[in-house]
């Protein structure tokens, strides 16, 4: 007889790609995960996974079974969430990925009171600046800054995000302050490499305008991007939620070139086709209220 915990374990192993990672996500020992997989294969009379010392791969039977097993596991999770909601309780595991700098500065502080209010939610928050695949990497949702390009995701807007073109007083003293988009082309830029293109994008009367400066530094982390701008390496286009405090303190200067940077947003997105749980909806509602409209980090810039 197939057991629900065995099906959930198999799906988690397939998504994680290893028994060790699946055990971490399930909060079980590796031996328990291996035992459940063996029981599943014995009950089905089929080998679901090829095991080597380096990796796990699905067999043909395993790939066929995974499609339905995934739906079963999701239905079980949703059923448990529905029952909990009926009792007025938000509970169970939830896995979310978010950018490092936003997570440290704003997401974490916004989540702490929510988690204290709902102690039965088991949230795993992975802070990672790479563009994770929400579905295949096993996330219930991802939080991102910018635009959601993945058509397999359903995005909920949490807050708007204004970006600031900034540089240190030292850099501007040495190289001059650009007053137009054309001036920017002669300046050194610090760019966020996860966007894929080293340019600054602005709102023009006829649409988006992209200006490419000279690359001083490309980096995939907001904290380092901010610190490099303060160190005087070049000009950076930073979200107000990162640069605001340094602009107020005078460590960075906002530059006006006559055009505003393209507006962006903070999104929470979940894989298409999945019915989002009550606790995920509750977190999204809480974050919208915590961030505000306009978000508090934009109001603070002018205080």
TrEMBL record:
<dbReference type="GO" id="GO:0043565">
    <property type="term" value="F:sequence-specific DNA binding"/>
</dbReference>
<feature type="domain" description="HTH lysR-type">
    <location>
        <begin position="2"/>
        <end position="59"/>
    </location>
</feature>
<dbReference type="Pfam" id="PF00126">
    <property type="entry name" value="HTH_1"/>
</dbReference>
<keyword id="KW-0805">Transcription regulation</keyword>
<dbReference type="GO" id="GO:0006351">
    <property type="term" value="P:DNA-templated transcription"/>
</dbReference>
<dbReference type="GO" id="GO:0003700">
    <property type="term" value="F:DNA-binding transcription factor activity"/>
</dbReference>
<comment type="function">
    <text>Transcriptional regulator of the ttuABCDE tartrate utilization operon.</text>
</comment>
<dbReference type="InterPro" id="IPR036390">
    <property type="entry name" value="WH_DNA-bd_sf"/>
</dbReference>
<keyword id="KW-0238">DNA-binding</keyword>
<dbReference type="InterPro" id="IPR036388">
    <property type="entry name" value="WH-like_DNA-bd_sf"/>
</dbReference>
<dbReference type="InterPro" id="IPR000847">
    <property type="entry name" value="LysR_HTH_N"/>
</dbReference>
<comment type="similarity">
    <text>Belongs to the LysR transcriptional regulatory family.</text>
</comment>
<dbReference type="InterPro" id="IPR005119">
    <property type="entry name" value="LysR_subst-bd"/>
</dbReference>
<dbReference type="InterPro" id="IPR058163">
    <property type="entry name" value="LysR-type_TF_proteobact-type"/>
</dbReference>
<keyword id="KW-0804">Transcription</keyword>
<protein>
    <recommendedName>
        <fullName>HTH-type transcriptional regulator TtuA</fullName>
    </recommendedName>
</protein>
<dbReference type="Pfam" id="PF03466">
    <property type="entry name" value="LysR_substrate"/>
</dbReference>
């Amino acid at each position: 007889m197939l057991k629900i915990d065995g099906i959930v374990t198999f799906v988690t192993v397939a998504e994680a790609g290893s028994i060790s990672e699946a055990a971490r996500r399930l909060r079980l020992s590796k031996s328990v995960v291996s035992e459940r997989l063996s029981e599943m294969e014995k009950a089905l009379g089929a080998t679901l996974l090829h095991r080597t010392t380096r990796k796990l791969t699905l067999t043909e039977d395993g790939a066929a079974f995974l499609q339905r097993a995934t739906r079963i596991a999701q239905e079980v999770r949703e059923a448990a969430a529905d029952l909990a909601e009926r009792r007025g309780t938000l509970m169970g595991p939830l896995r979310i990925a978010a950018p490092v700098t936003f997570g440290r500065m704003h997401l974490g502080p916004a989540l702490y009171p929510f988690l204290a209010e709902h102690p039965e939610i088991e949230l795993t928050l992975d802070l990672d600046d790479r563009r994770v695949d929400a579905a295949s990497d096993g996330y219930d949702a991802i939080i991102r800054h910018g635009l959601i390009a993945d058509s397999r995701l359903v995005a909920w807007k949490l807050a708007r995000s204004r970006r600031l073109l900034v540089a240190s007083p030292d850099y501007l003293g040495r190289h001059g302050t650009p007053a137009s988009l054309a001036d920017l082309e002669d300046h050194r830029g610090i760019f966020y490499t996860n966007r894929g293109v080293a340019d600054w994008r602005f709102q023009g009367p006829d649409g988006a305008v992209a200006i490419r400066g000279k690359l001083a530094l490309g980096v995939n982390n907001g904290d380092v991007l901010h610190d490099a701008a303060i160190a005087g390496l070049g000009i950076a286009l930073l979200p107000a939620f990162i640069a605001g405090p340094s602009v107020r303190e005078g460590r960075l200067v906002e530059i006006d070139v006559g055009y505003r940077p393209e507006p962006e947003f903070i999104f929470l997105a979940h894989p298409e086709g999945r019915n989002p749980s009550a606790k995920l909806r509750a977190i999204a509602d809480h974050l919208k209220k915590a961030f505000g409209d306009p978000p508090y980090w934009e109001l603070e810039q002018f205080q």
